[in-house]
Task: structure prediction
Amino acid sequence: MNKTDLLTGDIKKHIIRLALPNIGGMFAIIVFNLTDTFFVSKLGVNSLAAMGFTFPVVMVIGAISTGIGMGASSILARAFGKKDNHLMSRIATDGILLSMLSVVIISSVGLATITPLFTLLGAKSEVVPLISDYMTVWYSGVVFFVMPPVSDSSMRAIGDMKRPFMVMLVCALLNLVLDPIFIFDEIDLWIFHINGLDMGIKGAALATLISRACGAVLSLSFLAFKYKLINFKYNSVSELLKSWHDIIAIGIPGAIVRLLPQLVRAVITKLSAIVGGTVAVASIAAGSRIESFSAIVSMAVGVSLIPIMGQNFGAGNMDRVETSRKMILNISLIFGVIQTVIVIFWGDFFGSIFSKDPLVIEYIHKYLIIMMIGSVGLNLYNWISEGLVAIGKANLSLMLNAAGTLLLLIPGLFIGSKIAGFNGMIAGLAAGQIILGIIAEIISKKKFTN
Result:
């Protein structure tokens, strides 16, 4: 079994080497999502609105699959550190089986609740049939959305970031090609004229499903044939049940942590409308999209920490775990300073990409400066949370994030908005992030060494 050994060598170099393919993979995901949105927008407002209504459901199911993937990768990385090949194959295989079991539940419930659920979410009668067209296809092939994050996470756990990137790149390129063919009746490509299938929004869902299915096959092929981690030989049924229990014990907290930022985002949007009206809401929408590009780097570093810290924790190399922990603090400080300097000088330019209104640009600029300062704390507690998951302390990660969100971040938004309106609201959030980062750093000094 050919695997990447992270138990020796320069940890900083490992982080850079593992993070770079992740950045590419996340850009591929962005391209994938933008492709769907772009082509569906050509069908009209109702179709675009229908896709918008599906985002919360897709996001929640995505968090579930990510949670299962996190649980599997945490255990698998530590098993690698212990050189326990049997446990590695058990977790990889059983994680995939768990994702498939969740698919049965998701598909059954989802198909039966499309109309009542999306009506409850506020979809109008003329939009619901379009949502039904899209989600009927999506739920029918949900296995191809839920399973690949688990198999990709298994590869990442053993230090292979390149193949998951290849999987997402294949998905993004296929979706880019298939979307116009399935959605429209005719497509003009330079000198070529192609007859499409004219399936509308249902075609967008089908193109996405086929692209994801190809990615799933590729991901499973790597896991089965290159790494030999698919193994259906059990000593007893209890092995399977124990694997599921252990994966879920880490996966559920991990999934909840992934959803907490959406709660913060909802509060920001609501308060923005109150303290600054349409200008503030527009500024938040544009600013958060600009901010998301820096988040790609942050997420890539976080993903790379799981195999590094997990493998070394499993091997008992606590000195390397401690080195990784200290490096998290240094990287968060350096990255935060770099981001802040960039937006101080270029924030107006970034804002002008999304709006020509001077007031909106000013709001975007202020938002970016304050949030980049706060990103020092944000990245610190996010990366420490990833590290806690890597060493099997997912419940502590959940407690840190939930308590921080409810007791620091959201109160910071409300208090700041009362004191100084829009600027105070963002400053309150940034202050909460920095305080939470400090708390996470204090906790990590004790928890990463025992």
User: Anything to note?
Assistant: Residues 11-233 form one domain. DSSP finds twelve helices and two strands in the chain. The longest strand covers residues 186-189.
